[in-house]
């Protein structure tokens, strides 16, 4: 599995990601409309600043297209390394799958 939900075997998923040298992605529900997507690749030798900037660029486009509240974008942009993004709940699993593939490629 490419991601887990908060409270559902996070530790086991983390250990599997470590074993496979794969990105860790965890989704959590914010409310009935939005979910938080957290990813972690800090245990790997990658350019975190570059990955963070790329994720911010992609996220900014997503937020504009789906008209997310401005404060979401501002909160995400304020992170030193972007490792949390807020998405529409109905998009969360789809985005987690795509983000996993994107990050997995970056780790190679």
Please, could you describe this protein's structure?
The structure is a single chain. With 108 residues, the chain is α+β, with helices and mostly antiparallel strands. Helices cover 48% and strands 19% of the residues. It is built from four helices and four strands. β2 (24-29) and β3 (34-40) form a beta hairpin. α2 runs antiparallel to α3 (70-77). The longest helix has 18 residues, at 48-65.
Index terms:
4-stranded mixed β-sheet; globular; 108 residues; alpha+beta; 4 helices; single chain
**Structural class per helix/strand content?**
alpha+beta
Dominant shape: globular
Strand content of the residues, in percent? 15-25%
Mean pLDDT: 93
Please give the structural blueprint.
Layout: E1 4-5, H1 10-20, E2 24-29, E3 34-40, H2 48-65, H3 70-77, E4 84-88, H4 92-106
Parallel strand pairs: 1-2
Antiparallel strand pairs: 2-3, 3-4
Helix pairs in contact: 2-3
Offer a quick outline of the entry:
By secondary structure, the protein is α+β, with helices and mostly antiparallel strands.
């Amino acid at each position: 599995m490419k991601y887990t939900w908060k409270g559902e075997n996070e530790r086991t998923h983390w250990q599997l990601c470590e074993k496979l040298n794969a990105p860790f992605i965890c989704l959590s529900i914010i409310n009935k409309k939005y979910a938080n997507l957290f990813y972690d690749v800090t245990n790997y030798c990658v350019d975190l600043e570059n990955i963070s900037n790329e994720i911010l660029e992609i996220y900014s486009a997503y937020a504009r297209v789906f008209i997310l509240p401005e404060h979401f974008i501002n909160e995400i942009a304020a992170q030193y390394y972007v490792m949390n993004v807020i998405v529409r709940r109905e998009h969360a699993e789809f985005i987690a799958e795509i983000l996993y593939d994107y990050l997995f490629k970056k780790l190679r």
